[in-house]
Amino acid sequence: MRKTDLINAVAEKCKGMTKKDCTGVVEAVFDSIKDALKRNEKVQLIGFGTFEVRERKERKGRNPRSKEEIIIPAMKTPGFKAGKALKEAVQPKKTEKKSVKGAKKK
């Protein structure tokens, strides 16, 4: 799903809003998340997940073309951890365990 697909889905669910209004809402949500991360704040959306800034330490790497060893500097990267409800939504429902062939029953 691309951003335009997301905007269309929001417009479909919010009957009283135009597609232009939905575009503004989606952009505002993304901008708000980005601004909070710039301030090094966590964005916790209960049931959905948490956006946060993660610190990556300096590390050694290798230039794939020259095979030369290089130092990759420490940096901050955005991260996302899925919430319980989101994990459950994408995980197929568990079915009863099937018995293993040849296993002895007690």
TrEMBL record:
GO terms for molecular function: DNA binding; identical protein binding; structural constituent of chromatin. GO terms for biological process: chromosome condensation; DNA replication initiation; DNA-templated transcription. SMART domains: BHL. GO terms for cellular component: cytosol; DnaA-HU complex; HU-DNA complex. Residues 82-106 are annotated as: Disordered. The keyword Signal does not apply. InterPro entries: Hist_DNA-bd (IPR000119), IHF-like_DNA-bd_dom_sf (IPR010992). Residues 85-99 have a biased composition (Basic and acidic residues). It comes from the Bacteria. Keywords: DNA condensation, DNA-binding. Histone-like DNA-binding protein which is capable of wrapping DNA to stabilize it, and thus to prevent its denaturation under extreme environmental conditions. Belongs to the bacterial histone-like protein family. This is Bacterial nucleoid protein Hbs. The lineage of its organism: Bacteria, Pseudomonadati, Thermodesulfobiota, Thermodesulfobiia, Thermodesulfobiales.
